[in-house]
Amino acid sequence: MSDSLPLAEVAGRDETASWYEATARERIAGLLDAASFVEFVPPTARETSPHLHLFDLPVAFDDGMIVGAGRLQGGCVLVAAQEGRFMGGTFGEIAGAKLVGLLRAARETGGGCAVLLLLDSGGVRLQEANAGEIAVSEIIGAILDARAAGVAVVALIGGRAGTFGGAGLISACCSHVVVSEQARISVTGPEVIETNKGVEEFDSRDRALVWRITGGRTRVLLGIADRIVSDRIECFREAALQGVRQAPAFGLATLVAEQRRLEQRLRTLGECRDTPEIWRAMGIDEPGDVADLGDEAFAAVVAGQGTRHDAR
Amino acid sequence: MIQTEVRSWDRQRTARHERLGRAASLAKGKQVQASDATALLEALLQPGDRVCLEGDNQKQADLLARALAAADPARVHDLHIVQSGIVLPEHLEIFERGIARKLDFSYSGPQGASIARALNNGRIELGAIHTYIELFARYYMDLTPHVALIAAVQADAQGNLYTGPNTEDTPTIVEATAFKSGIVVAQVNRIVDRLPRVDIPGDQVDFIIEADRPFYVEPLFTRDPASITETQILMAMMAIKGIYAEYGVKRLNHGIGFGTAAIELLLPTFAERLGLKGKIATHWALNPHPTLIPAIESGWVEQIHCFGSEVGMDAYMAARPDIYFTGRDGTLRSNRMMCQNAGLYACDMFIGSTLQIDLDGNSSTVTPDRIAGFGGAPNMGADAHGRRHASDSWLKAGREASDGNIAMTRGRKLVVQIVETFGAGMAPTFVERLDSVALAEKLQLELVPVMIYGDDVTHIVTEEGIANLLLCRTREEREQAIRGVAGYTEVGRGRDRAVVQKLRERRVIRRPEDLGLNPLDATRHLLAARSIRDLVGWSKDLYRPPSKFRNW
Amino acid sequence: MEQFTIQAEAASRCGGTRPSAIIGVVASGNLEILLERIEGTGCAIEVATSATGFRPIWEAVIADFVQRTSPGGLRISINDGGARPDTVSLRLMQGVRLISEVP
């Protein structure tokens, strides 16, 4: 199992290292306690996609999903990280199986080890769609099983590929979601909306619009994410630690409360066409400028909302 | 007594009054409704007129372009278009519809392929492809416009114009037209009672039209630091250490590629650690590159004069009047003619990228079937033989070129090409024969479009090293020096290894290790900003990037 | 896709004690390189690339790499998304540095 495989060049702990820019392996290395990560099914096992060669596409030795165990401030964590730059971080057969296996192992720890999901994914991999769709549903089941067994599952989101499709669904099942302002969370991606509904409905190339609707700041104000941090691996580490500690209990009462929260949100905001309308309805000053605020000023807006999502 | 024919000396002025008379009913004072724009042009224009429809690589008189493209070819035809940029689809439509026939221009950019097609099928009769400053010069010699159609931000009722940060070509065009009995029509974003400042006096402007939307400006000089590669960072490190530092280059112009963007972002980090602050890169002829913000904020830059503006930079520049040229109103004043002149005569170095370089060092951005034009690069990237003032870097380059054995030392401008050996799609940058040669043959051009001639190039920087062409003494040496930095391209693999080794010993070729650099140290951590968001932070939130560059 | 193996003989074995290392990402214009120890001073480089027809360039890049860094006793496996030679060269050097590091 262990191969003491060095993750990638990590010269000490770089306090300015960007989460958005880092590879999946760099994120893991910067997130966990130094040299604590042990990879399961490492690249040397060469468990690569059995499908991509049919499409004349290159494989990756880890299929874009890195799973293993490590320590976070001394505590045990199981970690899965998607490489958003390989095939858009998509769920294929091998990548999906690796994550399902990790989550099932986590359930067996009965809460002894938390799970960190470093999501960076456009969703299901089109070239292996059936396997990918099955994987996503198995992952959702495994997350809920693990949470029911007392395991905290924390999603960390702020990569290039965003968190779309199945990955968006998966993020919604986690105990705690941490984002940066670069993060995007949605089920149907901007390009898909534009393709199906036309550019008048959604211009996927209008990046300000894309982030206004799906971006980290929007998601944290709407309660889809619990915490927003600066785009630094250090900040994600600190937030992961807190997320593991603060993860809410999982049971019927939590779910009923969540259902009420969502119904309430739909009633009050369901008619809004764009986020500035939502911010106005929520009583936020200068609703158009939310995206342009500095990190600290935005943190004050979030604090002013007193957003709590213990319903998860 | 010799009998001479009586000649009238003011025929142009008379013609001007006739044109104004034909258009009078459409104007109220100087104001014409946007809906009457085409009618105005039909009244003013005569077949064969030379017309400047203002448009360059940034701002566009787009309303007037649409109005001219909609004119009746039975009334308006065979125009001779003399303008900087062929950029909008309407610029081509004017030729397709027969409204215009002849073209003298400078830059085409996105319409490069359409222009090549129109030349090929005879829709366009080409005069010449110019550099900016060269075309402007001809406005005052043999291509003076009869009618200029220009763009400004605001006008008042008297026709005074405020051109705002994107002043660019306007004063040059208006000067040539208005003072030679021509007619000036301006589209403006708004007509106001009082202008923030007057860029063009009203007595040089005949008609003003309030447009339904602001004139289009292309963000052409924004390079996202997120896209800068380790290879580009390595090249930037080599350039700073091997050229900027060695020659002590203070006055310069940068191209718009990612290699030079990397250099801008390494000034406050890598170059600062080399102790170069204040010794290099202090005075610039440069558009408002957002990637220069960290260097400005770190105190590297004394001053910058701009050809044009850049989308999102206006508030930042207005807040930095010690650095930029600003009007009494506080906003940037750009001027392409002046800045090109500064780049030609007052810069000690130009450094920029290109698509192809041949074995003589000639470079071109022409690809098969595309005419991109020249813009300003050939003026920046040329030794000005009329220069008569000295500087240390200019003299050092001159001494290297002359081998120190010439009685009368003359300086040289440093003209540096910074390129990766392969471009997009594994297209080699180094070639035996430029694609522009084939294009010139196909379109029967009198001149092969060459961006920078090999005899002006002093250095070529690639990821493999720096070739100093000043130190080459024969044509064969130049060729091997170029092959010696051409990497794994066919040209590079065709090198004579023994000759290249000798050139390296003579410091004609210098590898990263010869400069004390390890390619493994070339990481993105060296960049002062790694994203557009970082640039916004450096600017203290004054820089407002356009939507397409956002990821937040 | 094109696959081939290039066999080279290095002057000496690659230093360090790590059994393996991986660097880079399979993406357009990028590649991943997996390095593992083998016996002897040979260097076996297995290339799987999405860009076909560039084997002579790979051979030239690898010949220079073997001469510069002496990666003896390594099996190097490459999944390439069409990286340019300078990127390949850089990743190979990064890979050797990584596996040579004392953990």
Automatic annotation (TrEMBL), chain A:
Protein name (record): Biotin-independent malonate decarboxylase subunit beta
Any Pfam family matching the protein: Carboxyl_trans
A GO term, aspect molecular function: propionyl-CoA carboxylase activity
Annotated organism of origin: Lichenicoccus roseus
Superkingdom of origin organism: Bacteria
Gene3D superfamilies in alphabetical order: 2-enoyl-CoA Hydratase, Chain A, domain 1 (3.90.226.10)
InterPro entries the record matches: AccD/PCCB, AcCoA_carboxyl_beta, ClpP/crotonase-like_dom_sf, COA_CT_N, Malonate_beta
Recorded GO CC terms: acetyl-CoA carboxylase complex
GO biological process per UniProt: carbohydrate metabolic process
Residue ranges occupied by any CoA carboxyltransferase N-terminal domain in the UniProt entry: 1-252
SUPFAM superfamilies: ClpP/crotonase
Spans traversing the lipid bilayer: none
NCBIfam families: malonate_beta (TIGR03133), PRK07189.1 (NF005530)
From TrEMBL, chain B:
SUPFAM superfamilies, per database record: NagB/RpiA/CoA transferase-like
Alphabetical list of InterPro entries matching this protein: MadA, NagB/RpiA_transferase-like
A molecular-function term among this protein's GO annotations: transferase activity
Gene3D superfamilies found in the cross-reference section: Glutaconate Coenzyme A-transferase
Pfam family, one: Mal_decarbox_Al
This protein's name: Malonate decarboxylase subunit alpha
Native organism: Lichenicoccus roseus
Name of the gene this protein is made from: mdcA
UniProtKB/TrEMBL annotation, chain C:
Post-translational modification comment from the UniProt entry: Covalently binds the prosthetic group of malonate decarboxylase.
Keywords: Cytoplasm, Phosphoprotein
Keyword Lipid metabolism found: no
Location within or outside the cell: Cytoplasm
A cellular component term, taken from the record's GO annotations: cytoplasm
InterPro entries listed in its UniProt record: Mal_deCO2ase/Cit_lyase_ACP, Malonate_deCO2ase_dsu
Source domain of life: Bacteria
Record PTM O-(phosphoribosyl dephospho-coenzyme A)serine, positions in chain: 28
Pfam families, per database record: ACP
NCBIfam families xref list: malonate_delta (TIGR03130)
Name of the protein this chain belongs to: Malonate decarboxylase acyl carrier protein
Organism field: Lichenicoccus roseus
